[in-house]
Amino acid sequence: MKFLAITLITDTQDPVTGAPTPTRERFRQVVASALLAEELGFDGFGVGERHERPFLSSSPPVVLGHIAALTRRIRLYTAVTTLSLLDPVRAYEDYATLDHLSDGRLELMIGKGNGTAQRELFDVSPEDQWERNSEGYELFRRIWREDAVTARPRFRPELTGAEVLPRPYQRSLRVWHGSATSRESVDLAARHGDPLFSANVTHPIGPYAALVRHYRERWEHYGHDPAHAVVGAGTAGFHTARTSQQAVAAYRPAFARHLAFHAAQGLQPVFPTLEDFVERSSALIGSPQQVIEKVHRYHEELGHTVLHLQAEPGGLTDAQHRASLELFQAEVAPQLRRTIPDPVFPEPSLPEPAVTTSPDL
């Protein structure tokens, strides 16, 4: 099993003082979280894309480009790239550039995105959002693979023998399809033989497991080997400590902030109490053994081989969050890596190393 740390870069307040965190400081915190994730042995670090309050994650390629310069091993993810809102040509240029700057450590998650405000900001109607996402991906995929593209898309000007630069570092980019509630994203992933990443954060596991089953059915329908269908899954919250009592007590202020966020958005929480949240959601809150057992229960339903955790404290103190991540990597991750296999897909296709010769030869 592989493990990602992901952030949506929410505009937060200090968990102790309640004072707003300056935007510059929030980005510094995100970068520090990425460096910590690499230090502790996470396989990937992801940055979401949202274009409305309370998120500051409107430009993942810029944030990930900075992180790429400061890290060496960890893979870099978007979570998710909202192709329904973006010009796929411009998105390609950003991510092909990042692909080079990261030495081929880039992976994308794509999706239509959520939120009325960001859809209105880009003048995208709910009726055509799925078509924009599908068309944007089809064109993005072609540009990545073809040196010159001719296409007549519906939602952007046509291309005639267009050469889009730079050409990518990886010959084929691994693209995950983010899935929350819709079969459209699931079918798009299966059609192209791409991995699926289940959001798995808002509701109990039932609807997410149903979509994963549908993905596997469509995967076979399109003629792919069932053994090669790859699924990742998110978690609604995370904190592990030596005992379940310690973990729950430490997480209680973070859950209170979770409820306050829902109230500010005018939303009714699906899990109204912390105890219900721990029991019925995908949150991993408890002792290391409890976390291991819960991941295995979810694996029985989803068959996932990649798991994401929250990269940032989210209401915990920095010290609490770091201690929790260290405990996860020391006692939880090794056992899950032994008992749940890594995803089955080929390594990214990279160019051959350049051959250099002495100027005297």
TrEMBL record:
Transmembrane segments: none
Coiled coil regions, renumbered to chain: none
Entry keyword annotation includes NAD: no
GO-annotated cellular components: cytosol
Keyword Oxidoreductase among UniProt keywords: yes
Superkingdom of origin organism: Bacteria
All residue ranges annotated as the Luciferase-like domain in the record: 1-302
Gene Ontology molecular functions: monooxygenase activity; oxidoreductase activity, acting on paired donors, with incorporation or reduction of molecular oxygen
Annotated keywords: Monooxygenase, Oxidoreductase
Region (Disordered): 340-361
Protein known as: Luciferase-like monooxygenase
